[in-house]
Design brief:
By secondary structure, the protein is of the alpha+beta class. The chain has 3 helices and 4 strands. The longest helix is centred in the C-terminal third of the chain and has 17 residues, at 80-96.
Length: 97
């Protein structure tokens, strides 16, 4: 399952930045998490990632190490072809009632 994950910083202190960068240097994504894209916002307010995970538990493992410094929002996403096909199904239902 694909997720659009955004984060914002909750600890922007010098010590918080130092500690989170130390942690990031040693961190590895858990098994079952594949980062398709991983970006920092240019204004340093947070970032965004597209992550494919095998379960909700894997997504939780991916973000849990960062909760002292980051606040996350994770939204499941679909390829546009699949999303538009589902939208067409909804229209067919609406037309049937």
């Amino acid at each position: 399952m694909l997720f659009h994950v955004t984060w914002s910083y909750v600890d922007t202190s010098e010590e918080g930045n130092r500690r989170s960068l130390q942690a990031f240097q040693k961190w590895r994504p858990p098994a079952g998490a594949d980062f398709k894209g991983f970006y920092e916002f240019a204004d340093s307010s947070g970032g965004v990632a597209i992550i494919e995970v095998d379960s909700a538990a894997t997504l939780a493992r991916t973000t849990s190490a960062w909760t002292p410094w980051l606040q996350f929002s994770a939204t499941p996403i679909l390829p546009i072809e699949e999303a538009t096909a589902i939208g067409a199904e909804a229209i067919r239902f609406w037309d049937s009632i």
